[in-house]
Amino acid sequence: MAWQQSAVIHWLFHEGRLTADPRVFVENLGRRLVEAGAPLWRLRIGCRTIHPQIAAWSLVWATDTPQVTDRIAGHGYKDNDTYIGSPMQHVVETETLFRRRLENLEEDRDHRLLFELAADGATDYLALPLIFSDRTVGTMIVASQAEAGFDDADVAAFEGLVPFVAPIFEVLAARKLARTLLDTYVGPRTGERVLSGQIKRGDGEIIHAAIWFSDLRDFTPLTESLEPQDLLAMLNAYFEAVAAAVTARGGEILRFIGDAMLIVFPVGSDGSQEDACTAAVEAARDAVNALAALNMRRKRSGQPEIRFGVGLHLGEVIYGNVGAPDRLDFTVMGPAVNRTARLEGLTKTLGYGLILSDEFAVRLDEETESLGFHALKGVADEQEVFALGELR
User: Tell me: the pLDDT tens digits for 274-295?
Assistant: First the structure.
């Protein structure tokens, strides 16, 4: 062998397979290959995913930029020139390797990726298929800057390494995908708890937080008048604008309930209720401004405006795992949740876009306007509620 393949395989079996972070795995594999004598400059390992936003994902390590970087391709990447005619397309669709010396490249034959690598000083390029257990195909790509590039023994050694790399990277990719899918569908708080083992009925916690409940105005008439795709597009635009505003201020979406959103701004470890309430109000301002800009574009195109109301309260919620033995869900319960939803309901009758509870309003360092005492369904006594004038 041109380099010590056995030393790399030994590392894969004894240390590499125990690596939890795929970035660390790719970096250490690259270093081990160089230490074993492989004429390696750059290593890239990747695969397709079933993520709703990411179609393919890969990690890149190079000797001159040792920090591993992510490369992400969105859905539809197979229809663009970056993929069409590329070595990666060849590997994925034929399940065979692609090899090309990077000298004397031809414009009408070689993909532009190869020209870019050659411009960076690469002399040789080898892409190999990683066949996973479900028969999907990932890729392991190596490039050299050595004057002689790879010889036949190098290529054979890399080919012999692939069956050992594939199952390890498949597990690492599956773990990463599980985490990202959980974060996408149930949120990072729930995802972290599921992955840490809080999966039994009754597992849960109490969260002390500023609580946000919002929903769309006139949603029922809109469901009758809009085509399904237009309705979904409007919902997604609303959710996207609100999500961007609240996450930037430290909020976390706990539930989508039809057209409604339940969000918390947890009270920090220092117990600062004022900070949590201020963050929630600033997020509401950001969301209102974002939707105002969006509504100008929607109006010009003849689409209905997106209007919404927000109730804000400070209190405790029970966030726990409930359901049937074979069908569980993390949900949010408690009197504070009901009260926040009732506050949002008042925005429709009182004509304000944002209504605050007394517990919330007193913790703001800005002037609020009392809207008087009002009955809230499920709450014994009438409650004084407040507004911020510019968010009417």
Answer: 999 999 999 999 999 999 999 9
